[in-house]
Input
Amino acid sequence: MIEMADTIERRNIKNEYILEVRNFNAYYGEKLAVRDANVKIEKNKITAIMGPSGCGKSTLLRSMNRINDLLSEFKVQGEILFHDKNIYDPEIDVYVLRRRIGMVFQKPTPFPMSIFENIAYGLRLIGITDKKELRDRVKQALEMAALWDEVKDDLEKSALKLSGGQQQRLCIARTIAIEPEVILFDEPTSALDPVATQKIESLIEDLSEKFTIVIVTHNIGQASRISDYTVFMYRGEIVEQGPTSKLLTNPQNEITQQFLSGKIG
Amino acid sequence: MHREIKDKSRKALLAISSITAIAALFGIYYYLIKESLPAIRSVGAELFFSDQWYPVWEPAEYGMRSLIINSLIVTVLGTLLVVPISYFIAIYLHGFASKKEKGIIRRLIEYLSGIPSVIIAFVFLTYLSPVFPNIGIYSPQNLLLALIGLFFLTIPISTVLILESLDSVPRELEESSAALGALPLRTYMKITTRAALPGVLNAIVLTANRIVGETIVVLLLGGGAAMVPAKLTDPMKTLTAVIASEMPEAARFSIHYSALFVAGLVLVLFSTIFELISVMLLRRSRR
Amino acid sequence: MTITKTNGSKTIENKKARIALKILTYFISILIVFVFILAFLPGLKYWSWEFFSSFPKDQMTGGGIFPAILGSILLTAVSLVIAIPLGIFLGIVLSEYNLSYIKFAVTILSGIPSVVFGLFGLGLFCITMNMRTSILAGGLTLSLMVLPVISSSVYEVMRSIPRELREAAYALGARKSEVIFDMLVPSVRNSIITVSFVSAGRVIGETAPLILTAAVFYATNLPKDLLSPVMTLPTHIYFLAAAYGTKARWMAEGAASVLILFVILVYTIAFMFRREKK
Output
């Protein structure tokens, strides 16, 4: 593992909570997008954040790797703890944070370069320059993302020429190449066809052995298929949360019930 | 009936405008070639291979090679000067500036783009040109002064074109780079610029075209010598400057007159090549 | 608990980059402001009623710039009256009819140097069509020069019309020309006004083509018709700067201030119309 100087110790936790959201509020300007959120994300599990569009689930997810910082007028209140340290503390180096909490976006975003360079980009960021090591790690990442067999014959091909599903798996490979601890998925399959979706879902399930996964989805089926724990949000608030099987079959809250039965979407 | 007439007359106007554009293009080429022929026939290859441009001497000589080289020098140096600076200004405005900053500075630059070239030339001629003799430089108008004037003339188009290209890159692409822990400058220079490359290259080409076609700034600030400058502080004249300064005096239909049309023809060739490159680049960006 | 405004610009490296770029940008911006100031302020002291209303006198050491102001206005008017309607129609052709050769022609035309338009105007209008040095020749030349600029801008404006508006218009059963002129063009009326004003700003400041086709250094009388030569503000400044040295500098400064004021006014109006009122 690469040594990175920052102020959060990497500890080997077993069955603890790697991320904790505490009394968290998020504002776009004056508008409150997430209100008083409290969630604990368990290590090596898949946590789904679900809800109708506009409910704040993406905002909450994007706050976890501080990618929302890029937007002007974004303000927060409360804490998000990563290994028990608040990531919004001014001491935190946000660039190092983002290498430990990675993100895959809704639309596949291959860089306008070759497949190899796409993955090498992140590796170079963490200081790997040796050609052999780059090649090995690129191969590793592509294998783990179930893409290696499809592209191994031509890594110099432009990533833009891949199909949508392949591009998304490339983005996943790019993220896992730098070995983060957590991977955030923001509706990763909503732009893909069912076949590609299925491939990515099973990939995510495999990845949860090594990584902690948080996935935002508006698709109830997807949450039930792959997640261990589900958080349901509505209009900026976490309405209900619990183990997926329990939440989906026996929701306690009325709004949850309405969402699950399709009355609100 | 009424509807028919309206429809037909509108279509006629659309056709007229199209025909005008095409006729203008062919007309320009036709006229330039037609009026160039006398000089090409009587002076021949010497036009392009000789450095001796003495159209009003006896015997007159019409060698415009140094003028052509000067036009190219000014274009290359001017572009090399403007583009990197405007690139970094565009990067700042695109990724680091606040909305307010970006708006104000962009507005300032857009106002600058409206200043007539004669005024820019006049300002630098009045205030900067006299400085040269004071610091021991022989020629108060020279290549350097012209480049400075060209810099302020072209910084608006270069910056705005590059900025628009950068701004048109989808936000998710930049976020993907940031999500890997990349610092903002690296994201903008490696990812955003790469994605916006056709637009950025187009900005370079259009800037070069603007410079090669500029007349007044190089005329007033460049000095009067139809010789290739040996150093930055030497005076020099370009094809455009020669046309503007000598045509009003040239006798109609003389060889001098025709030679100036040859200069115009060379300019049109350059600008056509630039525009063709631009078209190819824009086609690339559509893919 | 405090609300923290977030801005991931923690690391020193990022701060250094940001500061360096900021310094560059502000430095150049300040220089630009300087150029504006030097162009505008020194001439203000020469502004007077006499300056605006009289002819130049005493070898440019006295009098005013009235004929140049008038000439500029006339020339601008003539060229825009031709170029704006043509440019709008051409822009519509470019965006609504997919004819690649016209797009191509306009692109090539837009790159041609202004002085070459001057040569063309000289050859065609002044000599062949025997207009000599005149407002008409200059106006026609300028209108050809600014035509590709206007049409490209109109093209961009038309292209930016949302697809739904277009589809809705056709769905009403209108013909193509009706859709274009009765529905699409009015929806971008403000943008077209912006384009017109920007092109006016461009035309007012043109020098090189007019030196060859319309402008004279000193006109003893006002132009009596479209076939008379004129003085214009930019050509006057050019002639003064090129030939007259320091004695006439005052007049060039005064004229430059007037010209800048015109341009700033025109551009400000253009910016005002940028946003379409919904």
Observations:
- DSSP finds 13 helices and two strands in chain B.
- The longest helix of chain B spans residues 2-43.
